[in-house]
Amino acid sequence: MSLSNAMGATGGPPEEIVICRDREDLGDQAARSFVRLAQEAVSLRGRFSAALAGGATPRALYRSLVSAAFAEKISWKSVHLFWGDERAVPPGHPDSNYHLANETLISHVPIPPQNVHRMRGERSDLQAAADEYEKTLHDFFGPSDPGWPSFDLVLLGIGSDGHTASLFPGSPVLKETVRWVAAPYVEKLNAVRLTLTLPALNHARRVIFLAAGKEKRSIIRDVLSDDSPSTDLPARMVQPRKGARLFFLDQDAAALLGKDLR
Hints:
Layout: E1 2-5, E2 15-20, H1 23-45, E3 48-52, H2 56-65, H3 68-71, E4 79-83, E5 85-86, H4 97-104, H5 126-141, E6 153-157, E7 181-182, E8 185-186, E9 191-192, E10 194-196, H6 198-202, E11 207-211, H7 217-224, H8 234-237, E12 245-250, H9 258-261
Parallel strand pairs: 2-12, 3-4, 3-6, 6-11, 11-12
Antiparallel strand pairs: 1-2, 5-10, 7-10, 8-9
């Protein structure tokens, strides 16, 4: 079932909510959008740039994408993969967002290795890693107006506290206006992460959120409800300037949305 709001939360851009039966259906529905966006981008610009997400829910999308029904419809030689955030671990570590994507998607499709642009979370100096990744983005996107990367697609999850990528509630990095990539300290995790900043996310051509599970019900309602008092949730602050936000939710995550969307 697909529902649309003319205006998004806090009067932002329009948004579309696709409610799926379960995680498998969510993966298939999101894969259809991924394929369509990839085909459009390659047709218009000769390449498709996507920033991937970590976590359990994107796994369903990646598994769908490697199936013949979807993988054969994508010109993988024209696809460039990036990441929205990364943990301070080596690329082979089970907690690595790159590891998840490589295990479930990258190793199963004919994408050129040079088209995979991972964040180097294994570096001892994560600020230097953030600088390095920002240079990678500048080299790829080149001069842009108004000076921000223009991903064709950014995939994002939503934490039960409203965080997205590695942008957590109350973090000073939410006020960043210059950097494309940051290495914020996350107090609740006692760890440093690599993450794209809000302006970098908000200049994407399309942002897709993926969420599943009963534990996401309340935060999904707060992110999408126009009258929510939680206006400072990072996921709510992602308001792409060039188009609608698209949410793929399973029935459990969407359970509290019926009244708000009708």
